[in-house]
Design brief:
The structure is a single chain. Helix content is 25%, strand content 26%. It is an alpha/beta fold and 222 residues long. It has one domain (11-102, 124-221): 3-Layer(aba) Sandwich (Rossmann fold). The strands form four sheets. An eight-stranded mixed β-sheet has the order 5-4-1-6-9-10-12-13, with helices on both faces. β2 (24-27) and β3 form a beta hairpin. α1 packs across α5 (207-221). It is globular and about 65 Å long. It binds cytidine-5'-triphosphate and calcium ion. Cytidine-5'-triphosphate is lined by residues 76, 95, 97, 99, 101, 128, 130-132, 147-150, 162.
Length: 222
């Protein structure tokens, strides 16, 4: 969206976007990660900025965008810490990050050595906090929280459960098993879910266009 032509409709709004997959350390040189590129979150952040919002982007993927506050994190715990600082003062949270559900129970202080007489190596994992659920549970009536749901099957029923459980105003569900949708591609097919409303499915489109669609939806419903 070019500056000149846009009525800056999000002026005065503080928007937080999380983006990218978290990296959960195993030892000083290794981590557990996922295939998230950060692109969906980046588009959400850039369009919000273009519409005049004051944007904070909390990201695991390096980003260099003008006119926004960019905070680089690696782990779910670091992301949570930043959200605890920024969320109370914000109007909208878009939780586009792919947060690891589990992290190694212990992080080795030194690089782990392979052992000549062991062919199997086991890492014990422990659950990460659910950031969306924790943060959204502190939400006031004036704050708007958006979660994503990445599914490979039973999209609607799984996403409905997340909407109910996580106290989000909206869940943007996508089938990450479908070609051209989800992780590490430029396009996405999204179904928007809200409490007590029929789901809305948008056609497959670029992540930028999805972000425009979303902010249009937000401006209409707020
Ligand atoms: N999420 C989060 N903290 C976690 C896990 C997920 O904040 N520890 C957020 C994601 O950023 C996303 C939403 O919750 O906005 C849904 O993530 P998803 O992985 O689809 O769902 P989960 O609740 O983790 O359930 P599952 O992976 O078992 O489907
Ligand atoms: Ca998950």
């Amino acid at each position: 969206i070019s500056d000149q032509f846009v009525e800056r409709k999000l002026t005065g709004k503080k928007v937080i976007v999380t983006a990218g997959g978290t990296k959960e350390a195993i030892d000083p040189v290794r981590f557990i990660g996922n295939r998230s590129s950060g692109k969906m979150g980046f588009s959400m952040a850039k369009i919000a900025r273009d519409l005049g919002a004051e944007v904070t982007l909390i990201t695991t993927v390096s980003a260099d965008f003008n006119n926004m506050n960019i905070i680089k994190v690696e782990t779910a715990d670091e992301m949570m810490k930043q959200l605890k600082i920024f969320f109370p003062k914000s109007d909208v949270l878009i939780m586009a990050a792919a947060v690891a559900d589990f992290k190694p129970m212990q992080v080795a202080e030194q690089k782990i050595k392979k052992n000549d007489d062991e062919d199997v190596f086991t890492i014990k994992l422990t659950k990460n906090p659910d950031i969306l659920q924790t943060i959204a549970s502190t939400k006031t009536n004036k704050q708007f929280v958006v979660g994503f749901a990445a599914e490979t099957q039973n999209l609607l029923s799984n996403a409905e459960k997340k909407l109910a459980k996580k106290n989000a105003d909206v869940i943007l569900a996508n089938n990450v098993a479908e070609t051209g949708s989800g992780f590490n591609v430029d396009t996405n097919k999204i179904t928007l879910l809200q409490k007590g409303q029929e789901p809305i499915t948008w056609p497959l489109m670029s992540k930028n266009d999805i972000a425009k669609k979303f902010w249009e939806f937000y401006l209409q419903s707020n």
